[in-house]
Specification:
There is one protein chain. This protein is mainly α. About 70% of the residues lie in helices and about 5% in strands. The protein has six helices and two strands. It has a two-stranded antiparallel sheet. About 15% of the residues are buried.
Length: about 150
């Protein structure tokens, strides 16, 4: 029995990220009163009926917020997976080693050097998070479409 090849299932990450993003969009849209009959205008503190212009603005905001967050997290994780924060993690690990006064720590001898740490990290497989960046950019593009609709309607 052959196991399925992992690269063939790469699309699953994109689908899961898109579904998680859509759930977040629905939660934002729901919290902003998209389906309510009236919504409060926080600038004037008056209630008014929700118009189609308000609904397009809410959709634009929700897609942009989720897209920006997904793109930002994906970019940070992608950069981190390529070693951008290795120096920071090594410094924290060295600092914690320095302040641990357990007997097993002292038996190990000196802590590893940064070069050894980088070589150890490079030997481990790192998974890229580029799919979050791409799905986030897609959400930002959808927000752009709703923004264009908003300005054409107003």
């Amino acid at each position: 029995m052959n196991k399925p090849n992992i690269p063939e299932k790469a699309w699953v990450k994109y689908v899961v990220a898109a579904i998680a993003g859509l759930v977040a969009v629905i939660l934002i849209v729901w919290s902003r009163g998209f389906w309510d009959a009236e919504v409060i205008d926080y600038t004037t503190e008056n209630y008014h009926a929700v118009s189609s212009l308000d609904r397009v603005r809410i959709l634009s905001d929700a897609f942009f917020i989720v897209g920006a967050l997904m793109t930002s997290f994906g970019a940070i994780l992608f950069v981190s997976s390529h070693g951008a924060f290795d120096g920071l993690f090594f410094a924290i690990k060295s600092l914690t080693w320095f302040f641990r006064f357990r007997e097993d720590t002292l038996k190990k001898g000196r802590p590893m050097s940064f070069y050894e740490y980088r070589e150890e990290k490079a030997a481990k497989p790192r998974s890229p998070f580029l799919f979050l960046v791409l799905v986030g950019i897609a959400f930002i593009l959808i927000a752009g479409i709703f923004t264009i609709m908003f300005f054409k309607m107003s």
